Amino acid sequence: MRIVMATEFIPPKDKGFSGGAEARTYYLAKALSKKHDVTMVSSYLPGTEREEEIDGVPTVRVGPMREYTQRGSFVARRDYIRSLARTIPSLEPDIVDGSGFVSWDGSFKAARASGARAVMSVMEVWRGEWVRNMGLFNGMIGNLLERRYFARPYDRYVSISKFTRDKMVKVFDIPPEKIDVIYCGVDMQTFDDVMVKDKYPEPTLCTVCRLVHYKRVQDVLRAMALLSDSHPTLRYKIVGRGKFEGQLNKLARELGLTDRVEFLGRVKTNEELIRIMKRSHVFVLPSIVEGFGMVVLEAMACRVPYVASAIPPVREVTQGGKGGYLFNPMDERDLANKLDQALASKTDGHDFVVENYRWESLAEELERVYLNIGGNG
């Protein structure tokens, strides 16, 4: 099959991923390329070439050069979408798989223009939640576009969780028989290859996320304050950037945690990120909005216990909290209690990830989807 997989951001070679959609696209494309003609299409980022190979997978970058962004950037995103629709047909695909909200429109139009099958890969459904998650202006536009995109007659839908699939059926009336659930995975070799000598000298929490309100890093700071008497040397490393960073800094000062909280921004490579996670004692995912929660699996791959919000997708992918602890969302006291347990724990979810979330097995599931809708073997 000739397969085109489009996602908004594929980072430069040897740079870290900024989101789950791009990591998923990269690893599935890499696995599928062993048997099929696969091309990734993404934005033209600083430090990249218009056409390049990333771990053997041809990658085409379209639109004007732009920086990574999680919100807004309407003109650049419009140009990217239009460029997808113009460029992909020249690749003569059998399958066009658009992964992530911003890539759906251009990839669908490209599939129709080239006579290929159109697949929509869905990370999250935000109907009714856009304004809360993204603010009034961005939220209103996102809500409008999401409805428009889901009205398109895709040949197949791929959801990364049963939770997201059920939302697609409920709010957009997508026939359940047209949706396949294929989880995200973990590249175990990458994690096993990164070695660290020891943990940080003081007990250390770690979070990797965009610094936006719904990721609820503020709850971890408040839980730390509650643990100050029992864990006076507890440290917290926060990896990521976002518009909420200033408010989180202010809260850390108000809680007297400035000397124990470190904002690391975006790290340069996956290896550096894995080292930070492996040296930490507990990984924390306090978010109330996730389509999957891949970072929890990555923490388990690092042999680090996690504490995560007991939201439906996280419950689903961890099978009820295997390898760590789940807490009541936005409940800082329950979070503090679970952090206390995790800090004393030797829980290890490494084998659970190996058994359930290998990219090679997930790529075989996706290959069957493509073949079933008419892709040429």
Walk me through the structure.
With 377 residues, the protein is of the alpha/beta class. It folds into 2 domains: 200 residues, Rossmann fold; 169 residues, Rossmann fold (3-Layer(aba) Sandwich). It has 15 helices and 14 strands. The strands form 2 sheets. Strands 3-4-2-1-5-6-7-8 form an 8-stranded mixed beta sheet, with helices on both faces. A 6-stranded parallel beta sheet has the order 11-10-9-12-13-14, sandwiched between helices. The longest helix is centred in the middle third of the chain and has 15 residues. It is globular and about 65 Å long. The mean pLDDT is 91.
Topology:
Blueprint: E1 2-7, H1 20-32, E2 37-43, E3 51-54, E4 57-62, H2 74-87, E5 95-99, H3 101-114, E6 117-122, H4 130-134, H5 136-150, E7 156-159, H6 162-172, E8 179-181, H7 188-193, E9 204-208, H8 217-226, E10 235-239, H9 245-254, E11 261-265, H10 270-279, E12 282-285, H11 294-301, E13 306-309, H12 312-317, E14 324-327, H13 332-343, H14 350-356, H15 359-372
Parallel strand pairs: 1-2, 1-5, 2-4, 5-6, 6-7, 7-8, 9-10, 9-12, 10-11, 12-13, 13-14
Antiparallel strand pairs: 3-4
Helix pairs in contact: 1-15, 2-3, 8-13, 11-14
